[in-house]
Amino acid sequence: MNKRWLAPTGLAATLLIAACGSSTSSTGSGSTTSSAPAASSSALKTTKIGGATVLTNAKGFKLYWFVPDTSTTSKCNGSCATYWPPLKGPATAGAGVSGKLGTIKRSDGSVQATYNGHPLYTYVADAAPGQAKGNGLNLSGGVWHEVTVSGAAGAAPSGSASAGGGGYGY
Fold first, then answer.
1. Environment class of residue 74 by beta-carbon count within 10 Å: exposed (0-12), middle (13-18) or buried (19+)?
2. What is the mean pLDDT of the chain?
3. What is the spatial distance between Cα 70 and Cα 17, in angstroms, rounded to a whole number?
4. What is the pLDDT of residues 49-58, one digit of tens each?
5. How crowded is residue 92: how many other Cβ atoms within 10 Å of its Cβ?
6. Residues in Cβ contact with 90 at an 8 Å cutoff, skipping those fewer than 6 apart
7. Exposure letters 10-25 (e unless 16+ CB within 10 A, then b)
8. What digits encode the pLDDT tens for the residues 26-36?
9. Is the pTM of this model over 0.85?
10. Cα–Cα distance between 90 and 55 in angstroms, integer?
11. How many CA atoms lie less than 13 Å away from 91 in the CB half-sphere?
12. Are the CB atoms for 104 and 119 separated by under 8 Å?
C-alpha cells in the first residue's frame, strides 16, 4: 500500500518543524546544500505544475508565499530562510507573468522579490524543476502556498499531512 511513505514524511516534517522553530539565528557564513534550488534574481516565468499555472524562477523551481508575511515584511528569517530561501530581488517578468513585481527590504538588509504583494521563496525539498513539495505545508509558523498566476492560494495536495486553515489572503 501507500502507507510506507507516511513515516519518512512525518519524520521529515518533524525535523523541519524543529529546525524552523528555532529562535536563534547564526551570523556567520552558512552553507547550503547543492540540492537546494537557487534563489537568485532572474526573469520569472509561468509553468503548469499539478494542473495549476504557477510562477517559477528562471530555473523552473516553483515559488511560494508565506501566510504570515505582509506586503512589506518577510516573517521568514533565520533558520526558516534556510529551508525557504527568499528570491533575491529585483525580479523581471518573463512570458505569461502579468502580476505586479516589486521588492521589500529584509531584516538582514537584503532585497527580496515580491509578486502581487507577496514576498517570494523557493523550497529546499523541491530538488528539481517542476516539483511542488512545499505547497500547503504548515511550517515555520504559518502555511505556505504556491504562487499561482491567478493570485489565488494553490490547493494543498490531497493526502497532505499538513494542517491548514486559519490564514488570510491579500
1. buried
2. 76
3. 22
4. 888 999 999 9
5. 13
6. 41, 101, 102, 103, 111, 113
7. eeeeeebeeebeeeee
8. 333 332 333 34
9. no
10. 15
11. 34
12. yes
